Amino acid sequence: MKHYLVLFLLVSFGMSCLAQKKVSANKKAVIASVNKHEAKLKEISDAIWANAEIAFQETESSELLANYAEANGFTVERGYADIPTAFIATYGSGDPVISILGEFDALPGISQKAQPTKDPLEEGAAGHGCGHNLFGTGSLGAAIAIKELMEAGKIEGTVKFLGTPAEEKFFGKLWMAEAGAWDDVDVNISWHPSAATKADVQSSLALVDFIVEFEGQAAHAASDPWNGRSASDALELYTTGINYYREHIRPTVRIHYHIQDGGQVVNVVPDYSRLWVRVRNSDREGMMPVYEQVKKMAEGAAIMANVDYKVSLVSGLHEVLVNRKGGAIMQKNLELLGPIEYSAEETAFGKKIQEVTGKPQVGMDSAITPLEETKEHPGGGSTDVGDVSWNVANINLGVTTAPKDTPWHSWAVVACGGMSIGHKGMLYASKAMAMTMVDLFENPKMVEEVKAEYKERKGDYKYKAMIPEGPPPIGSNN
Ligand SMILES: [Zn+2]
Q1: Which of 141, 285, 428, 458 is the most exposed place for a label (fewest CB within 10 A)?
Q2: Which residue ranges of the chain lie beneath pLDDT 70?
């Protein structure tokens, strides 16, 4: 009896908290929907986590998400933009059209068990070091919650869940944007697993990826080197040029290269060499002149080594076009939901990761970060969500799925994504995004305000994806 009383008090206290915060009936309904699908969402996320398929090879991960969307009444268009693992799941009709992004690709070589010390699930295999198993599944949970609200006749319009492959490499959204995936969409919603919870109103870095190849003449390295023209000499001169150039570029610029082929053996003058080069800057406008200069340097190196050269574009990313109006709507819903709560075991798991990776053992950070000022120069990395944000008004969210200061793209993030810390963040993201979509479906004026900010920030810029001619590089080992 006592237990029932305690339970009753707890439930009524919880309900009165929600009531005090004025959570609308529709928002309560989407929260309930996510809770209803919780077991299945965890199961899908864990299966994608265990499969850990890399860019453009996410066959099973894509199918898991597309199938669950279909089972829940969505119409699914598979193989979008000539990418076998890209798909668009649609429910409803008419305006407004709100889309939500779902990524699901993994990173090579960082396989890890769901435990707080480094130990691969499968030596050398891929792992979800960016939490995209949570990303895709959490977004689908939000889309299904909205679909159920439409089905109940509470809101009208169209909801689209976009299965967007290859975020870690090649950037699948570029081909989807060129194919018109967001042409009829009013507002797009996205999130990313993180070490903090906040409406994300920061941009990202623009980047461009390209391959530089040098081709010379092979010869015996000792008996007739005068007959050789060395492709690896050109490679060394080229990277030396890049490293001198660093002195004369703005601090916001980043140049990385990966030597993919520097010759095979020591007794042959190498006739072939190859690098993957990446240039980044705060925005595309500032990046392009650096890109042009770094390309030109390949010709200089080729002249010095008396070899031929070739530069081929892989793909390039725009920076994220921030939407503060949209961010503010998302932020209000985070405040309604309140911070994620962790068990003693989860806190201990987080602290152990911090101990092993040499970080202060402060545990999880689930406090809702207040809406930030948008920085002039964003830190951090790049994302093909940037390109989406130049095609449609975009609202971004970050949710805690790993302890504070966790090294990203590492085994530690993989570990959290396969257990309850990751699950909690994923389900929280589903709820926050579904609540934000409820706001948009209920308030045409809000949609117009978010779109107006997008149009103002975009100005008269004509979007064109930075991709080479021809089909997407499916099956490429680049
Ligand atoms: Zn990511």
Answers
A1: 285
A2: 1-20, 477-478
Residue 307 Cα to ligand 1 middle (Å): 39
Secondary structure letter of residue 95 according to DSSP: S
Q: How far is the CA of 189 from the centre of ligand 1 (A)?
A: 15
Q: pTM, whole model, 2 decimals?
A: 0.93
Q: What is the pLDDT of residue 20?
A: 56
Interval 401-410: pLDDT, tens: 999 999 999 9
Phi and psi (nearest 5°) for 127? -150, 160
The confidence score (pLDDT) of residue 292 equals: 98
What token pair was written down for 57? 């090879």
| Sign of CA pseudo-dihedral 179, 184, 186, 187 | negative
Say how many Å lie between the CA of residue 143 and the centre of ligand 1: 20
Half-sphere exposure of 262 (CA within 13 A, CB side): 10
Distance 84 CA to ligand 1 centre (A): 20
CB proximity list for 224: less than 8 A, separation 6 or greater: none
Does residue 297 contact residue 245 with C-beta atoms inside 8 Å? Answer: yes
